[in-house]
Amino acid sequence: MELWYTEEHSKDVRFSIRVDKQLYSGNSEYQKIDVMTSNEFGTFLTLDSLMMLTEKDEFIYHDMIVHVPMATNPKIKKVLVIGGGDGGTVRELTRYDTIEHIDLVEIDKLVVEVCKEFLPQTACKLEDPRVTIHYKDGLRYVRAIENEYDLIIVDSTDPFGPGEGLFTKEFYGNCFKALKEDGILVNQHESPYYENYANSLRRAHERIVEFFPITRVYQAHIPTYPSGYWMFGFASKVYDPVKDLNAEAWNQLGIKTKYYNTNLHKGCFALPNYVKDLLENK
Ligand code: SAM
Fold first, then answer.
1. How far apart are CA 241 and CA 9, in angstroms?
2. 209 and 74 in one domain?
3. Do 76 and 8 share a structural domain?
């Protein structure tokens, strides 16, 4: 009998992947964790039956969430990652010798353990000496921090369940406070296409705009996320991600990427009109 993983992307649309093998299934205190393999996408992780990453397309998400802010300010030294227990974001950050410390705040220890066992492709740098893992709620963690980080990356689940607090006004205000005077906040920002995701994107953007003087939204094509079209939020105290990009300086670092490049960096901020209208609440 064939086994399929099916995810509801809107109330009238489902997305399915034929499963080769189920490698892991378990429940943590916070969520249901599954690891499966597929001929097309390799090993993939779902939380509460929602796609987190696949071996085949995770490079797009992790390139875009890391290299866009890092190329905007290559002097970044201290980074906070909230969520991201699969390790993909940390893996990309550790490629910068200039980064001195990374705090990873992941609510669910079991996600990290399961990824270390089944997804070494993303979890491979979690033991880097510059990385400290805190098993805490990111919402609570940032409450106590002031003026400490050059970059905060919110690599969270969607705005329900444990991830809900990471889309609130309180959280964004505390991220602003936790960042240094030239700090940058980047977050996974859902999709503009289906209404349920588009509403989350619009609300999150509205809240971030209240705190940060510079706010932009950028895009990437991620085949296994709802609609295949995904957004990231870029918020900053000083740097403009397009005007302040020093492409030559980043290219000289010699970091080899499969998706990101400095031309794409400029292009990814050029949004279609329906997305601009959504963000401007038209
Ligand atoms: N790339 C993924 C995506 O956009 O679908 C995100 C992947 S990563 C596995 C998301 C992580 O955020 C999960 O491991 C989850 O446990 C963690 N998380 C959710 N809510 C959190 C919170 N309040 N504090 C810290 N981590 C949280």
1. 30
2. yes
3. no
How far apart (Å, rounded) are the C-alpha atoms in residues 187 and 165?
13
Strands (E), the chain: 3-10, 13-19, 21-27, 32-38, 42-47, 50-54, 78-83, 101-105, 131-134, 149-155, 179-188, 214-221, 229-236
Q: How many domains does the chain have?
A: 2
Task: Give residue 128 CA to ligand 1 midpoint distance, Å.
Answer: 20
Question: Distance between CA 93 and CA 17 in Å, rounded?
Answer: 30
**Angle at alpha carbon of residue 225, lines to 224 and 231, rounded to 5°:** 135
pLDDT tens digits, one per residue of 159-203: 888 999 999 999 999 999 999 999 999 999 999 999 989 999 999
Ligand 1 pocket at CB < 6 A: 47, 52-53, 61, 82-86, 105-108, 111, 137-139, 155-157, 162-163, 165-166, 188
Q: Which residue minimizes the CA distance to atom 15 of ligand 1?
A: 83
Q: With CA atoms as reference, report the closest residue to 175 among 206, 140, 133.
A: 140
| Residue 94 sits in the same domain as residue 187 | yes
pLDDT digits (tens, 9 = 90+) for 251-281: 999 999 999 999 999 999 999 999 999 999 8
